[in-house]
Amino acid sequence: MSVSPVLRALLRPRLALPARAVHSYPLESHVGLLETVISLGTFFVTVLVPSGWVLANMESYKKRD
């Protein structure tokens, strides 16, 4: 019985990239202030607001109805 190529590819150990290959050249463009504000704002809204909601309403979640 032979192992399918897809299964063989999934089971093959992954090789880590060397650190020098990750940062091999300088940035092509500067990240602007507006892009930074939008990305941090999106992170805040999508991650921190729901977790803050759960923490703020913890007592209502603990109640047995």
Automatic annotation (TrEMBL):
It comes from the Eukaryota. One of its GO terms (cellular component) is respiratory chain complex IV. It is a single-pass membrane protein. GO terms for biological process: mitochondrial electron transport, cytochrome c to oxygen. Keywords: Membrane, Mitochondrion, Mitochondrion inner membrane, Transit peptide, Transmembrane, Transmembrane helix. It is found in: Mitochondrion inner membrane. Pathway: Energy metabolism; oxidative phosphorylation. The chain crosses the membrane at residues 32-56. InterPro entries: Cyt_c_oxidase_su8, Cyt_c_oxidase_su8_sf. Belongs to the cytochrome c oxidase VIII family. This is Cytochrome c oxidase subunit 8A. It comes from Chelydra serpentina. The lineage of its organism: Eukaryota, Metazoa, Chordata, Craniata, Vertebrata.
